[in-house]
Amino acid sequence: MIETIYxxxxxxxxxxxxxxxxREIWVSRSGQNRTVAEILAQxxxxxxxxxxxxxxxxxxxxxxxxxxxxxxxxxxxSFVDLDDILEAAQRDDPALILVxxxxxxxxxxxxxxxxxxxxxxxxxxxxKDRAASLTAAVAKASAGALxxxxxxxxxxxxxxxxxxxxxxxxxxxxxxxxxRYLYELDLCQPTALVIGxxxxxxxxxxxxxxxxxxxxxxxxxxxxxxxxxxxxxALYETMRQxxxxxxxx
Length: 249
Prior knowledge:
There is one protein chain. The chain has two domains: 3-74, CATH 3.30.1330.30; 82-248, Alpha/beta knot (3-Layer(aba) Sandwich), CATH 3.40.1280. The protein is of the alpha/beta class. The protein has nine helices and ten strands. The longest helix has 22 residues, at 227-248.
């Protein structure tokens, strides 16, 4: 099945990171700005076919009007093997892996993939069931980060976390019910951060498998930060701690 992505940043990153996946680019006949022209020039250098269409046809292909006049048709994206993420983490110790327990909103998934990428994570792990897949909406929300970030899909999240623990990776679950704050932890050691789904958070069996649970401080009357915001803050705090230690050496 051909995958469709849309928007300036996702299409540009698809060409830059994994241009071999791009089969065609569709562009609106109604006008192009400089950035789109640069993307098309890059596509021509790679020998990728470019087609001009009326904007309505791009709307139909993208399933939205928010495509910025450019759509790319890609060979199907594939999840990587979990071993690929673990090998990357071992090459660039300490490990940082983002584990998503049932994120179903494509916007949240895309945002979390983007945060994982900019904060230096080695990969993202999602469950096979009850979770969003790698759709065009996810690619758009990730602003191109999906083309750079490895994502593994696993059948049993609990067993995956147990594997991490056997390999010396500390498993930290984020939940408001925790009795300690994330900022109290030493995140400079190999770490897997677990973020729960939008509705119910981390599932009980997954929660029990975590080495410990931590909360992000907050004020106000809302229940908690949403999943994408919590994940971004946890990833940033991990990166901040590690950069601080590195700068002190």
